[in-house]
């Protein structure tokens, strides 16, 4: 058990390190020139560009920059900027070229919006998905089953962003059925109503997978001997389905959920863009438009950490449930 | 259970057919899993309808120039419409088209610069389909090769490939692609030195490359798992014992057993890639002008949807219908290959 966990931890660590190095190289050793993007005039003279690069510390050799970035992650560092010094405490992900604030501050200030969005989506996704899945499994083979499963198949197959866009345009902008997104800084009560529309659409679209998954899992457990035993004892059908069958059917669903939350957290990009929610996704998309490399690098790293951690948790939790995993 | 009788019937029929072997001359041979799947697929109405929808879009893409030339000559411009030419004379001072649907412009013209929307719609089917199918083919080849190598060779090779799979799976795909696209683009020329067409071309192949780079891992993992168990089977050991070369064992002995999962995975990959392309184009990291792309049109049209919904709806319907048909077809193919499915 311990060796499995250690091996899994080692794997997660090397994957994160590789992500860090490759993302750093891609952004800072690549041909992108942040100085060019930050140049206030239409065309900067080479001398002006060199000055901008120097002020950002981009003129120094790459290993020096990397070592500094790397140590900043764990102990924090001071970033000199234009004669001034900005302190950036651990975990320091650098300083935004544009706002001159530490990247970690920028990211963490946007984090609650993304987490709130994801949390609501998960709730809707699980409740709707499991309810419809169970319902479909109990009426297996009937027209209702076909409508529910076919409907979820069709609903889930249409490209998400197209559906979210049409939904957003017609329910929040054209007709004001749902309120538009507010700003997180104006308080939670101002912010939450704007999340109703994205919760609904992302939650319902994500629920389609769970519907089919729950239905299949339920069909498996409904055909088990203990369900037949329960039925023969004369327990009401509702209890048979709700207690005996559902409990067994839920454990694989929960496993998938762990992996999905990580994907959802990093996949709210499109939703945040369409509904204009001030979360991590919008932060990184905005940074891309303005070549704010430290922000992009920071968001890539933070999402990678979330994905790797969630995978790790699911894997380790699963190895407790199913000992066969440890041996493979 | 109401479905039970039908299931038994289907089972009995399949068994009977397998025994009589209607398509085979040699009565002793049963049908291969591929043949069974093909037989099931031919009876699946959803699959047939979806195939026709996909074929429709393929034909639209192939005959895009012909379809465009079917429109009448525009009396104002004095020429037939094409997807690229800008006609500012067709829009008024506010950018709105002077006319709606006419015989010269079946779907009207673009707001602002007056390009023909029908031409852009039919040409827009091209990048979606090419990117979807080319990326799916390439990522399938890479995924299968990696999976075969990792599974069959084992040891260090397996560990390295498995690590690379884990690595790519933990990267936030959309974010990396969006971030990397402009950076890689700069490799081909500094900002402002490339023409719009060159940029568009680079973007096109870059999207395919990035989709393949981030798309092969699922299949590789699947193939690896299958190969690990097949490797120890008698027929592989027998082949090895009589000195069959490794390459031959991999491609002639093991690979034929994996045709089912590979076809299923490829058919599910095509709609996923088409969606990814449209999403990237929508977010601004995909195709750029002047290439006609549904994702781009949707991004441009969304701000005028209230005053000019005709601009937005055709590409929305196009991409939705195409991806829906491909996804449902993929589901049907998966069900057809799945021996446990009973419908």
TrEMBL record, chain A:
Is Ion transport given among the entry's keywords? no
The entry's cellular-component GO terms read: plasma membrane
Keyword Membrane in the entry? The reply is yes
Which InterPro entries does this UniProt record tie to the protein? BPD_transp_1_N (IPR045621), MetI-like (IPR000515), MetI-like_sf (IPR035906)
Topology class, membrane: Multi-pass membrane protein
Localization of this protein: Cell membrane
Q: Which Gene3D superfamilies match?
A: MetI-like
Alphabetically ordered keywords of this record? Cell membrane, Membrane, Transmembrane, Transmembrane helix, Transport
Which top-rank group of organisms is this from? Bacteria
**Residues spanning the membrane:** 111-135, 147-171, 191-210, 248-275, 295-321
Where does the record place the ABC transmembrane type-1 domain?
111-318
* GO terms of biological process kind: transmembrane transport
Q: What is stated as this protein's family in its record?
A: Belongs to the binding-protein-dependent transport system permease family.
Q: What is the designated name of this protein?
A: ABC transporter permease
Organism, as annotated: Intrasporangium chromatireducens Q5-1
Recite the lineage of the species: Bacteria, Bacillati, Actinomycetota, Actinomycetes, Micrococcales
UniProtKB/TrEMBL annotation, chain B:
Where does the protein end up?
A: Cell membrane
Q: Which residues cross the membrane?
A: 46-67, 129-153, 160-184, 204-223, 254-274, 310-329
Specify the protein's topology with respect to the membrane.
Multi-pass membrane protein
> This protein's superkingdom?
Bacteria
Q: Name all ABC transmembrane type-1 domain ranges.
A: 125-334
Positions of the UniProt region annotated as Disordered:
1-32
Q: Which UniProt keywords apply?
A: Cell membrane, Membrane, Transmembrane, Transmembrane helix, Transport
Q: Which GO terms describe its biological process?
A: transmembrane transport
Q: Name one GO cellular component term.
A: plasma membrane
An example Pfam family from this entry, by short name, is OppC_N
Question: What does the similarity note say?
Answer: Belongs to the binding-protein-dependent transport system permease family.
Q: What is this protein called?
A: Peptide ABC transporter permease
